[in-house]
Amino acid sequence: MRKIRYHEQQPPAVGEAVEVAESILWIRMPLPFILDHINLWAIDEGDGWTLVDTGIKMPNLQRAWEKLLAGPLSQKPVRRVIVTHMHPDHMGLAGWLCERLNAPLYMTAEEYFVGRSLTLGRWDKAPPEIMAFFKRTGLSLAEQELVDKAGYGHFADTSLPPPAAFCRLRDGMTLNLGAQTFQVKVGRGHSPEHACLIRPHDGLMISGDQLLPKISSNISVHAMEPEADPLAEWLDSLAEMAQLSDDTLVLPAHGLPFYGAAVRAKALIAEHEDRLNTVRALCRTPQRAIDLLPHIFKREVVGRQILLAAGEATAHLHYLRERGELTFEDDADGVRWFSVPSS
Ligand SMILES: [Zn+2]
Asked: What is the whole-number distance in angstroms between the Cα of residue 252 and the centre of ligand 1?
């Protein structure tokens, strides 16, 4: 199988920027997770900058932005801030940055409204409909208690509310950024309406989390929309990515810039298909989402990771359920068991 090929440019230090392609600066910010960084981009419009993504809400990132604004970005004004999707590592500082720069925010509507609402709602104890979702996945009573005690709606810990107004990005629209033209390509499954930016004249793509070189983006059913089927949307989006030319330089939010978008998209599709096959085989006897974890994840799932992992397992179960390959039954304790229907 063909492999992706990395661009030769190495990442910049925090607070610095390097040109990775014609008129595009690469910026890196730290993240306090196992995934320890995010890539951000500054597009040179000729007489100004467009920033793409902002980093998570942490004081050291604001200091890094100040260093960039006093250094490599200092010669021209920032004309706008584009956020690919509402996850805190991407949207977290948009509220501060747009105000600090007096620049408008550009996002798709679903990302903006979901992101904005998540920064506003908070519960000290998890609401019953949220607890019901985790119970259905088969979490132990001790794990359920942890969810309950932690409360629900911690989004604002890592993301500021975005600005009160925004400019809407739509799938397929052309964005004129000064001297440059980009096209918006929407992908779904990882988040509601994720925007990628494609520069048609050289095929370059700022991919956000829609196409990453090493890791597989999280595709989860979330407690907020417990019957969703995000994996179908994700696989559709990857199938579109698999049409891209091998010459496309992909600028991902995590990892290194690379060539080989189609190769990578196909490898990710194959990874999910493997997992789906595992789930099909396991469900010959009834399974809860939680039962799948040791079979579909290579790494051991520890601590609070179990919540995301349960959501990701549920995404695979729902994909098969929506295609008629699995049925389910809720037991007296509210736990959901999925199985291959008896013929
Ligand atoms: Zn994301």
From this structure: 11
